[in-house]
Amino acid sequence: MPGPMTGLIPAPHTPFHADGSLNLDAIALQAELFRECGLDTVFAGGTTGEWSSMTLDERRAVAERWREVGGDTLKVVLHVGANCQADAVALAAHAREIGVAAVSAVAPGYFKPTRIVDLVDFWEPIAAAAAPLPFYIYDFPGMTGVSLPMSQVIREARPRIPNLVGLKFTNSDFVEIQQCIRLDDGAYGVLLGFDECYLVGLALGMTGSVGNTYNYASPIFRRIDAAFAKGDFEAARREQRIAVDMVKVLQEFGFQAASKAVMGMLGVDCGPVRPPVRNLTRAETLSLWEKLSPLDAFPRPLRKPE
Amino acid sequence: MPGPMTGLIPAPHTPFHADGSLNLDAIALQAELFRECGLDTVFAGGTTGEWSSMTLDERRAVAERWREVGGDTLKVVLHVGANCQADAVALAAHAREIGVAAVSAVAPGYFKPTRIVDLVDFWEPIAAAAAPLPFYIYDFPGMTGVSLPMSQVIREARPRIPNLVGLKFTNSDFVEIQQCIRLDDGAYGVLLGFDECYLVGLALGMTGSVGNTYNYASPIFRRIDAAFAKGDFEAARREQRIAVDMVKVLQEFGFQAASKAVMGMLGVDCGPVRPPVRNLTRAETLSLWEKLSPLDAFPRPLRKPE
Amino acid sequence: MPGPMTGLIPAPHTPFHADGSLNLDAIALQAELFRECGLDTVFAGGTTGEWSSMTLDERRAVAERWREVGGDTLKVVLHVGANCQADAVALAAHAREIGVAAVSAVAPGYFKPTRIVDLVDFWEPIAAAAAPLPFYIYDFPGMTGVSLPMSQVIREARPRIPNLVGLKFTNSDFVEIQQCIRLDDGAYGVLLGFDECYLVGLALGMTGSVGNTYNYASPIFRRIDAAFAKGDFEAARREQRIAVDMVKVLQEFGFQAASKAVMGMLGVDCGPVRPPVRNLTRAETLSLWEKLSPLDAFPRPLRKPE
Amino acid sequence: MPGPMTGLIPAPHTPFHADGSLNLDAIALQAELFRECGLDTVFAGGTTGEWSSMTLDERRAVAERWREVGGDTLKVVLHVGANCQADAVALAAHAREIGVAAVSAVAPGYFKPTRIVDLVDFWEPIAAAAAPLPFYIYDFPGMTGVSLPMSQVIREARPRIPNLVGLKFTNSDFVEIQQCIRLDDGAYGVLLGFDECYLVGLALGMTGSVGNTYNYASPIFRRIDAAFAKGDFEAARREQRIAVDMVKVLQEFGFQAASKAVMGMLGVDCGPVRPPVRNLTRAETLSLWEKLSPLDAFPRPLRKPE
User: Fold this and answer.
1) Of B175, B179, B240, the CB nearest to A197
2) pLDDT in tens, B159-168
3) What's the pTM?
C-alpha cells in the first residue's frame, strides 16, 4: 500500500508575524486557498515550512493547528525529522497523538550517515514512535548532504520499519527514482519533489508530487496532468516551461523567501522567512511581482505589493 | 534547422587490436551491426570512441575509415574536440575535407572556462574550420568539469557560430535541457546522452539521443519509442528499466570497458580499452556475460566469452 | 583582545550511559584527566560533544555540569550553535547565566547562508544573548556545508558583534587562516581545529588549537610545542606524524566513535555515540586498541578492552 | 635519492607572439631573469607553461629551446604528460634524447583513474620511455579531477617505476604531503606547488617548491627561507602574507593570464595566454600594475604597461 500521499501536494510555508513570531491564524487562510485549488493533502513542517528554524514547541503548535484546520477534508502529512533523534521521536509521538495522516523524516545532516544501515538505524525509532501511522522517508540530499541510493535504503528499511509506505524524493537522480518506483511492483509511494520536472515524474510513473510551488501555482500542474492524460506532450511541455520560468524568477530573488512573498500576493500573508534565509526588500518584492504577474500560473490574480 | 542528428545514434567504440594498436578493419563490422539494427547515423570519435586516448593521426584515420564505410547510407558525425584548440581546428578542417555530416567538440577540460564567453571563444575557430559543415556543441560536465548553462552558451554562440545546429547533452540537468529544447522555437537539435533516461528525453521533446548503449542494445530503445508513440507508459517504463538494469551491470565492471566487451559478445571484436581505463579480466568478462545474457536487450544473442 | 582560548584545548565528548542516556557523572573524570595533562580550558558541546544529537535540556545540563566541575581552574567555552536561531539564543542566554568563559556557534547547516551578511545576521542575536561573554565564530564547512571566507565574515561581524573575539577554524584552507590571523594585527584569536596539522598552525601563528584528539593524546602536541620552541623541526615533524598515524587509525573505525572508545581505554568511560554515528563492535574496539597501543601518544597506558 | 629538484623552482610560461604563435626567442629572456634571481632549475611545459593548449610539435620545440638556453647552468625538468598515453610516451622519449634533467607527468584528466593501480599503469610506460632520466609524478587534482592519495600511489609505483624520484604536489592536502615526505625515510623528493603556503612546506620538510610565482616573485620566498632558517617566524609570516596578497590580486584578474602579464612588466614579454584562458584587457593590465607595484615582491621594478 503506497500510503496516503497521491497527486499534487503542497508543502506549506509556516506563517510568521512581521516580528518573526508564529502566526497560527494564517494557517486557515492557507487551507482555504488549497481547498479552493482542489488540493486535499498537505506536507507540513518540511523544508518550505522552515522546520529547521523552529523550536520543537513551535513545530508542535503548527502541527496541531494544521490538524484542526484540516479536519476531515485536508489530510495532513507531517515532517518530524531532526538532527537529534530524540527530538524527532518526540515529534513523531506527538504526531501520532494528534492523529495526522502520516509522518516523514529527513536524514540527519550534521553527522551524515555514509552507510545505509546507519541511516535506517536513525529512522527506525522515529518511525516506531509514529506507528501505526504510515511513515515516509524524506530524501533531500541538496539540504542534508546525505546522498545514499534510496532504493537500497528502502530495501534495508523494509523489514525494520513496518509502517514504511514510501518516500518524498527531492533529488534530481532520475535513475534512482526509477529504481524506487519499481520496488516490489510499485509497493512504495514515490513523491517527487522537483516541481520543474513534474512532467518527468509523470512519465516515469511517480505516485504524486510534493512541492513548494504547489502552494501557489497548482493550476500549471493541473494542466500538465490534463495534457499528459490526453497524450498531448506539446501542451504538457509548454505548461512545464511556465513552471521553469516561474522557478527561475523565484531563484533570482532567493527561492524560499520569494515563494513566501508570492503567498502574500495571493492574499495569504505568511510573513517573513527566518534567518539565515534572507527576506526580499520592498523593491525586490515589487520586481518579483512584475516578473511573475504576466505568467499564467496562479489561482488568483497576484496583488501588487504595497 | 536542427541539424542531421535525429533519433537513435550510437557513439561507436574505437576498435583496437589486442596490443592496443588501431584496428581499422573492425569498423566495417560495427557499421554492419548498426545497419542491421536500422541505425543510420554514428557519432564517432567521442567519449565511447576514446578520443582522449588517441593520437591525432589515429583520430584522422578512424574518421576516414568511418567515412568510407558509411558511404551514402550511414551518416558520420565526428567529434573533433581537444584541449589544444589548434589540434581541434586541425581535426575540424580534416573533417570538412573528408566530408562528414557534421562535427562536434567538447569543452576543454584542463583549463576549464568559467565564463560563457570564454567557452564560445574556444569553440568559434573550431566551428569555423569545419564550416559549412553543421556544428554541434558537446556538453559533458561529468568528464570535462565544465558546467555552464548550455541554453545561455547557445545564446552567446548563435551570432558567432553560424553553423551551430545543436548540442549533444550528456548531462543530468533536466531543467537545462528543457531550456535548450525550447530555444528559438526548437531551432536547435538537442541530443540527450543519458541512456538510462531515454524515456525522460522523449517526454521532454528531445531531437534524438546519442549513446554508448545504442551500439549494442538499440532494440530496447526502439521498443521504448514504440510504446511512447502509443502512449503506453507502463510498457515504456518496463523497457526503460531493462536499460537501467543493463547499465547498472556494466557500471559494476567499469562502464567503458564492459560496454566494449559486450561488442565482442555480439561478434564485433573491438578489442581492449586503452589506459587509464582498465580492461575486464577473463573472469569478469564471463561474469558480465552471465549477468547480461538474460536481458532482452540485444540484437543478436550474446556469445559466451572463451 | 583575542579571547580566553589559547594553547591546547580539548573538545570533550559528551558521556552517555550504555543505553544512550546522559551520564553527567563522567564529566568529573574527564576533567580529572585534563588537569592531569595540564590542560586548563575545554570547548564543550561542540562536534565531538555531539551537540546535534542532544536535546536542548541535555545541552544545558552538560553545560552546567562542566561549569561546576571546571570551577576556577578549568575554563569552559561552550558551543551554543543550532540550526534554529531561537534555540541558539536560548542556549547563549543560559551560558551567560551560568557564567562560562566564552561561547561559540556554528553556522546553520540546513538552510546554508551563501552571503556573508546573512551568516552574520544569523549569529548577531546569538552573540548578543551571550554578551558580555566573549563570542567565537565556529567555522566547520565539512559539517555545515557553509563555506565562506572567514576573514571577510569577521570584517562584516566586527561592528555588529562587539563581543566577537575570534574563531575556531576547523577548515583546511591554510590561506584563509593566514588572512584571519593577520586581521587587525592579530586582534582575533584563531584556534585551528585540524589536529594532524598542528605544526602547520604553529608555523602560521595560530593562537591555539581546539581538537578531539587533545582529549586523550595531548602529550604528542606538548612535544610538538617543545620541539617547535627549540626550532627542532625534525623532532616536531616526527611527533606530528604520530598524530597523523593515530588519526588514520581512528578514521579507519569511524573517527567520532573510535575516539570515544579511546576515552574508555584511558579509564574515562564516555559510553557510546548516538545515532546516526555508528559504534564500534567489540572486535573493532579490540582491533583499535591493538593498533593504537604501540603509539607514544597517550597520557596513561591504554587498557585492553574487555 | 630524491632527484634533481630542490629549492625554489619556477614553472615558466610558454611565450607566444601577439598572434598566439610560439615565440621561442623569449625563452632566453626568461632564463636571464631566472639566473639574475639565482634560480638554477626550471619546470618547463607544465600548467603555467600551458602544455594542454599546445601541439606536440610546439611542446618539443619549447623543450629543445629550454635545453639549449639552460646549457650547463640551468637544469631543465620537463613535463611530458598528456591524456593520450602514446603522446606522453613520445614526449618522454624526446626528452631523453635531448637530455633534460628529469621528466614529470600529470594524471590523465578525461578518463579519470579511480584506482591507484590504473594510474600507475598509465604512468609506467611514460616513465620507462624517459629512463634512465629521473621521473616525477605531477599531482594536480584541481586541474585533473584525479584525487588519489599520493603516498599510496608512490608505494604502488615504487617497484614498477625504478626511475621514480619524487612528486610535484600541487594539492592542498597537508596531511597527505606529510605522508609523502616521510616515505622510506625521505627517499622521495616532494615539491610543493602552493606558493601561498610556502612557509607551511618549509615547516613540514618539503624538498623544494615548484610554482608559477617563482617566475617573477622569487625575492619573497628567498626572504621566507632566510627568516625560517633563523627561526624568525614573525618575519617569515610577514613575507608569506606578501605572497598571499599578490596571489589574491592575480586571482582577481585570472591567475594564469595575470601572472603572464607580470612577466611583461618585468621586461620579459611572454605574450598572451591561449584560449580557453582569457587575457586581460588593457585597462585590467593597468589596474593589475597599480595593485601589484606597491608590493615588495619583485626582482626588478614593474614597468607601467603602455
Assistant:
1) B175
2) 999 999 999 9
3) 0.97
